[in-house]
Request: fold
Amino acid sequence: MSKYTEILEKHWGYPSFREKQEEIVEAVGSGKDVLGLLPTGGGKSITFQVPALATEGICLVVTPLIALMKDQVENLRQRGIKAMAVYSGMTRHEMKVAFDNAAYGNYKFLYLSPERLGTKYFQEQLGKLQVNLLAIDEAHCISQWGYDFRPSYLKIADIRSSLPNVPVLALTATATPKVVNDIMEKLAFREKLVFQKSFERKNLAYVVRQVDDKQKHLLKIIQSIPGTGVVYVRNRKATREVAQFLNEQGFSADFYHAGLSAAIRDRRQADWKEDRTRIIVSTNAFGMGIDKPDVRFVVHLDLPDSLEAYFQEAGRGGRDGEKAYAVLLYNKSDEKAMKMRFTKSFPPRDKIKEIYQLLSNYLQVALGEGKNQSYEFDFSDFIKKFKLDAMIAFHAIKFLEQEGYLSLSDDLNNPSRLIFLVERDDLYRFQVANIRYDTLIKLILRSYTGLFNDYIKIDESFLASKLGISRDELYEMLKYLTRLKIINYIPSNSSPLITYLKERLENSLLYLSKEHYDSRKKNYADKLQAALHYANNPYRCRSQMLLEYFGDESAKRCGQCDYCLRKTEHNLTQFEYDSLIESIHDHLSKSPQPLEKLVDSIDFIPNKSIQVIRYLIDEGQLRYRADNCLELTGKLFS
Ligand code: ADP
Reply:
């Protein structure tokens, strides 16, 4: 048994690696730079966790989503592996404690959000760490050709130069060939090396339906496919409306979006995961990090802005390998809506500057101030206050993020936490001298461990009820102890944060590159175009279209998407169908012909030929000319 398999078994209890995991682990273990392309749920985490455990030192993991980061840290801790996370929203002192622990406490994993990397503080701390591997999750974020470019990822290249002999493992689930190359270049790979698991999902049937009444069609789907599902819609209001509609029709459904409180989201997610709710209607906020194997259908009522996003979301179906459906319901008004969104996604540069200044005023950041500071940010309040269009404001902020002026975190949901700042003896002396605080301190020490070395989560309601005091009173006591530097207490914070990466600038100094603006616009337009093409093109196997988009030109027809199924109705084998198409193409490309002549000249069962020709006419691949001869409208798709 290899040392890696031993680690896999010892810490996770898994007997063997999945496809491509072992190759990645071995390559990283031998010091190579690697890009791993595995689908969501394919087991990317194991590929850096195992080699890091096999080597002395600590593994740095860069990942943009704080919620996922926390999940992973928790998960490792439960396996007895020392791991911690550093992200925006942590105080200076929390970070200091974290880095000290990372350097001197035998920690194996340090998770970092990318905007932390650029800080001088981090650069200083880095020197203290013995880093064995640099793992980059969601690595497509480093490429502006990807669908989620984050400029703070570019800072990773700087860390690389401080860690010249440390291998890098970049991981992503979705990247086009152009992005794959870009990732390796931006991360300064010493040699290019990619391991990719095929994106083919054999048990997932992709279906596109052109329908006017989407809700009615949704009902049909839910009635005919038993089991759990996800319905994706574009906006928060629609999540509620569709869930309500399904409830009225007698189905168990609930809705989910990022605007709900963390407690509600957790509960709804758990209810769905544990099959108390059958259908969850959600915005794209749902699904990240969700690992439910038996999702039988994923229906999109709105077309996502990129095939990367569609593939990720649709791919949440059928993780258990059993048959599942990914259905896109589409009609012409979607295209109109998409074009409108496109315009709003690129507010003029002057508008972006205006929103930057409004934002800075709103957050009370003075000119020349704010660098590396984080501010809690209530987006709805912001747009209400300045009467801004939500889409425009959102995209202006995104643009400022992409230009490296600020970074916007996902929802933080940080619980209250505290640490003791004094040694046990000093604490004891304090307790004796301040009897009023003695009971509180004793209760904290009895209820939680590790408080002298690290920040520990506390539950104020629990402490207050044990002491028989109100939460406000408890809060005052904890604040008082913090002022005396006996403890440091940080109350929970849960709204997203904006971190300024540069000091606030006046308009004349705020530079928004026209070149970036134009190239991003083009990139976005290309992605929309690809998504529209997928929705609008009934002449190709859906799976082939998606796989080709991700660079797999040799993909086979899936035999189960709407296109393949329409063809199976002809009762022909794939080979027969393909031969027939080839022969129709050969004849008509020489010269247009009347139907009877065409059928006669094809060496095939006549009624089958007629059926397929009619089908091709219906699909618009063949058409009648004025003289009643059939002609090709373009290339025939097999
Ligand atoms: P990804 O990051 O690629 O979406 P994860 O790393 O979260 O996927 O892994 C998905 C699930 O698969 C996790 O529950 C993980 O423990 C499990 N898993 C990963 N590798 C293996 C393996 N070799 N054998 C069994 N289960 C595995």
Notes: The longest helix spans residues 514-536. Residues 204-330 form a domain with the Rossmann fold fold (CATH 3.40.50.300). The two ends are 47 Å apart (CA to CA). The first strand starts at residue 34 and ends at 37.
